[in-house]
Amino acid sequence: MKFLLDTHLLLQAALETLSVEAKSILVDESNTLYFSPASIWEVVIKKNHGRVDFDVDPGVLRRSLLDNQYHELPITSLHALGVHELPKIHKDPFDRILLAQAIKEGITLLTSDQTLREYPAPVVFVP
């Protein structure tokens, strides 16, 4: 199965603080794992604002993801237009672009954000 990880799960994977459920998905070699440039951008912005939960080096995070066989999913104008089509359930622009990417690419969004479960979209929630 193909999974696009949300930013919080990427950070938890980097810090090795994943839940058992999330870790079982990530170590399953039959799954293909993706990350979005939006997640790296979110880390940069929130780290620069002093958020301690985003205190990682974004360049090291990206390199680590690539080294661990994650695939980078570029953001396209089709994804940006997909945000416009989403119901206004969630206000976070980073989560909205991740969800639009997942929908447009037919990839399941793996998230620890309960609000994203409210979308009629391919979303799997893990605590």
Question: Which features does this protein show?
Answer:
127 residues; 6 helices; 5-stranded parallel sheet; alpha/beta
Commentary on this structure:
This protein is α/β, with parallel strands linked by helices and 127 residues long. It has one domain (29-125): 5'-nuclease (Rossmann fold, 3-Layer(aba) Sandwich). It has 6 helices and 5 strands; from the N terminus they run βααβααβααββ. The chain has helices spanning 7-15, 20-27, 37-48, 58-67, 77-85, 93-105, and strands at residues 2-5, 32-35, 71-72, 108-111, 123-125. It has a 5-stranded parallel beta sheet. The protein is globular, with a radius of gyration of 14 Å. The two termini are 19 Å apart.
Q: Give me the secondary-structure category.
A: alpha/beta
- Silhouette: globular
- The radius of gyration is 14 Å
Number of domains: 1
Helix-strand sequence:
EHHEHHEHHEE
Strand and helix map with partners:
Elements: E1 2-5, H1 7-15, H2 20-27, E2 32-35, H3 37-48, H4 58-67, E3 71-72, H5 77-85, H6 93-105, E4 108-111, E5 123-125
Parallel strand pairs: 1-2, 1-4, 2-3, 4-5
Question: What does this entry show, briefly?
Answer:
With 127 residues, the protein is an alpha/beta fold. It has helices at residues 7-15, 20-27, 37-48, 58-67, 77-85, 93-105, and strands at residues 2-5, 32-35, 71-72, 108-111, 123-125. It has a single domain (29-125), classed as 3-Layer(aba) Sandwich (Rossmann fold).
